[in-house]
Amino acid sequence: MTSCTVRVAEGPEDIDACFAVRKEVFVVEQDVPADLEYDDLDATAVHVLAVTADGTPLGTGRLLHGADAAGRTGAGPEVGSLGRLAVRAEARGLGVGAALVRGIEDAAGERGLTAIDLHAQVGALGFYERLGYTAYGPQFLDAGIVHRAMRREF
Prior knowledge:
Keywords: Acyltransferase, Transferase. By secondary structure, this protein is of the alpha+beta class. The chain has a single domain (about 5-154), classed as Aminopeptidase (3-Layer(aba) Sandwich), CATH 3.40.630. The protein contains 5 helices and 7 strands; from the N terminus they run βααββαβαβαββ. It has helices at about 10-30, 35, 65-75, 95-110, 125-130; strands spanning about 5-10, 45-50, 55-65, 80-85, 115-120, 135-140, 145-154. A 7-stranded mixed sheet has the order 1-2-3-4-5-7-6, sandwiched between helices. The relative contact order is 0.16.
């Protein structure tokens, strides 16, 4: 585990750092079109940021809740949606992703949510399973990448 701090992003500098990590991971590495990566849900999402002691961004993720999550999950208002989880290449395998997921879960609990849904790239299913998520439903394409829905109840 690398030493990092996970916090809810606050202010334009934190949001810019979240977007920069997403651009590096999704747009550059995975060739996701930028117009698919960034959407209007970013304005109301809770963004979580992992940084080193000197403030270097390592990873990010977002939590949708309320109507925004319901539109994505099809579930009730008590279920949030975890998405856009991205860890910079040099920080992978060091526990940053797990710390981000736990940070998003904490933010969900603070908002009274009782479960989180997510759409995992199939290569990441094992990662989420180790964190207590269970896959359901068929595989599907999102931005040209095979995904599967997962959920964790609190």
